[in-house]
Amino acid sequence: MTVVNLENITKVYAMGSVEVRALDGVSLEISEGDYVCIMGPSGSGKSTLMHIIGCLDRPSSGRYYLCGQDVSQLDSTELAHIRNRRIGFVFQQFNLLPRETVLGNVEIPLMYAGVGGSDRRRIAMDALARVGLGDRMHHRPAEISGGQKQRAAIARALVNNPSLILADEPTGNLDTRTGSDILAILDGLNAEGCTIVLVSHDRSVAERARRILHLRDGSVERLEHLRAEEPAERGAESNGHS
User: Fold this and answer.
1) Domains and CATH numbers, the chain
2) CB neighbour list of residue 228: distance below 8 Å, 6 or more residues apart
3) Over the stretch 158-167, which tens digit does the pLDDT of each residue have?
4) Do 212 and 39 meet the contact criterion of CB atoms below 8 Å apart?
5) What pTM was computed for the model?
6) pLDDT digits (tens, 9 = 90+) for 42-64
């Protein structure tokens, strides 16, 4: 199944009387179980592309199909629903609520999805155990390390069984060893069938993926294949990944 299908995506911002073309005709197809890294220099359009793939923004023109649904022109409420149901986010800054426990933070997407209290807690606890954080679930973010915060963020990204995980510089605030641990978790999730799109400026991080999309000046400079495409059975395995 195709998870992401971008067709000639452009994004234009008005800066006073000047138009800035952040994306200029980007096309990309990502299948279920794929692992793609987006790379490029500052100003290349990485963040804009990530925002569109993550349904945080809409393209100025072109079409974006997420799991076969055209989400290009949905309104903000519809996009929020799609984000919560189909996409898991992992950010450089973790984005954990400081007053909530780790468990409470991981439960938040389930709360928005209308999952009941007991089921919500069970799913969140399972996700935390999956990323090796079962013994820290009752701590608050200030009481755990940066690596543990990112593990919590990954658990939060997993709880709604998303079609796609977006990781934006997930090791940017971590030391090398801790960053490697986080990347190993993402590698493991991909091996289980999770579809992952990663943004990074670090070549060693990008090489964990199967393909690297190189952006420059809002356009695709090249698509680099690092590993052969996995057979279709990966997608079949992914249906039970959380």
Assistant:
1) 2-240 (3.40.50.300)
2) none
3) 999 999 999 9
4) yes
5) 0.87
6) 889 999 999 999 999 999 999 99
